[in-house]
Predict the structure.
Amino acid sequence: AKTSGRDAVRFFDPAMQAVLVVRMMLESNLRVALAQNQFKLYYQVQVDSKGGLIGAEALLRWIHPDRGFISPAEFIPLAEETGLIVPIGYWVLETACAQLKKWEEKQDTRDLTLAVNVSAKQFQQIDFVQKLRGMLERSAINPTRLKIELTESTILDNVDSTTAKMHELRELGIAFSMDDFGTGYSSLAYLQRLPLNQLKIDRSFVRDISDDENDATIVRAIISLGVNLGLNVIAEGVETQAQRSFLIEHDCYAFQGYLFSKPLPLEGFQELLQASRQT
Ligand code: C2E
Ligand code: CA
Ligand code: CA
Ligand code: CA
């Protein structure tokens, strides 16, 4: 019969059970992490072609009391599956707004923008716009300094309701960047309709720009697409001078990557900022 044999064996597969147990532990640890403030934002600088700092991307870190750093690649997928990404994501947005407020109060950091990753599950919450509007009001920041990074799949999954929300948030002043651009399935027709400010070239294309003709072609195409749609274009994962030169040569003038700095805790980011503003 259908339910006997293989399926039954597979269900009791000890290896699989171990995987499930680990997942359950990770899930309950994630809840504790949220309750006990084990998350931290790191900041990775974004620079222009003259090396000027234009802002940062906020990247989430989980600092576990025993296990140390846990990479977002490890816990974000589970946070998404369990829905915990929603409260975690609001914590990220709250923290980002509070930081922007502090930067706004100082002359030399007033113009920085902060990009925040928002996952599909969170953006699709029915009250996302309302919640974010409340946060903006409470923190009293200039909303034009906040940028939301969405992936193509987040936008295209539910294109009508997502576009409507993006329009509402754009009216409040918030900017949008399409993250990991080039890895999904955006069509020109959609791109033209979306209220985006920026395309972010995925680092998988940037990596081999200098020696892979296909990647070079894709990157050139993305840049000219962005330029033609009136969007600014930023490249992520820029690690070498050669990559930077290629990008500048092809009219991409904003960058993020290890060439400039790794993501840093706030203190480190602010030191970098000061050093760059003193020269
Ligand atoms: P992402 O949004 O594509 O973020 C960029 C990732 O590239 C970051 O990894 C960053 O540390 C890494 N990176 C930056 N420059 C370089 C470089 O030059 N070379 C290489 N090889 N890597 C570089 P990270 O911090 O591990 O984050 C991984 C992913 O986790 C992010 O990818 C994003 O999808 C997700 N994530 C991070 N923070 C959040 C968050 O607050 N909310 C949500 N929903 N997702 C987040
Ligand atoms: Ca991102
Ligand atoms: Ca990205
Ligand atoms: Ca990526």
Observations:
- The beta strands are 39-48, 53-64, 68-70, 113-117, 146-151, 175-181, 198-201, 232-235, 254-255, 264-265.
